[in-house]
Amino acid sequence: MPALDRHGNVFVLDLGDGENRFHPEWLTAVGAALDEVEKAEGPRALVSAATGKFWSNGLDLDWLFAHADQHQDYVVSVHELFARMLSLPVVTVAALQGHTFAAGAMLSLAHDFRVMRADRGYWCLPEADINIPFTPGMAALVQSRLAPQTAHEAMLTARRYGGTDAAAVGIVDQAAGEDAVRSTAIEIAQAQVNKAGDTLGTIKARMYAPVLATLRDTTDPLG
């Protein structure tokens, strides 16, 4: 399960050491960690990291298929995580040491910055290949955080981007060696800790107002 640690003014949220799929209990744990970060006072920032082969493989499809009657509520909870991260009143950095797929890739985009391992691991939106359309909220999130041509290619072709390729098209901000991913993310976060607070939260809320409204639409989240 996710665990929150602190390195000085930088909170480090470790998403886990498995596939880190969005099981309801996992979502609850991440939400509790974000509560702690948001309620803290003083300079602070957040790094979301993981250990192992994956950063996150996204939706827990096994759970979802076993609880089909809760499909809409589940999507609402995933959308809320995206919205929460996108508008969090601290600077957020995703440290992508492993595979980052589907809703996991979308969660990475909800962070302010991303650092990805250069030599191994892929960032991918596979929805076109697995016949799962993007919800309106998911599409809005991706298109708000990527350049139009990059979003077009990533969403339509399900291309798997390695770290260097992802950096070249602006999916991530930096590609780094395996041992430097987390430390680089912490350095980026540390440089921005003094920006935490209501003003930053307001800037994010206004910058991404249309996306946040779409993500928080609970009447028809599936479109």
Describe, in plain words, how this protein is organized in 3D.
Strand 2 (10-14), helix 1 (24-39) and strand 3 (45-49) form a beta-alpha-beta unit. It contains 11 helices and 10 strands. The chain starts with a strand and ends in an 8-residue tail after the last helix. Helix 1 (24-39) runs parallel beside helix 3 (71-87), helix 3 packs parallel to helix 4 (103-109) and helix 6 packs antiparallel against helix 11. With 223 residues, it is an alpha/beta fold. The chain is globular and about 45 Å long. The longest helix has 17 residues, at 71-87. A 6-stranded mixed sheet has the order 1-2-3-5-7-10. Strands 4-6-8-9 form a 4-stranded mixed sheet. It has helices at residues 24-39, 61-66, 71-87, 103-109, 127-130, 136-145, 148-157, 163-168, 181-190, 198-207, 209-215, and strands spanning 3-7, 10-14, 45-49, 54-56, 91-96, 99-101, 113-117, 123-124, 160-161, 174-176.
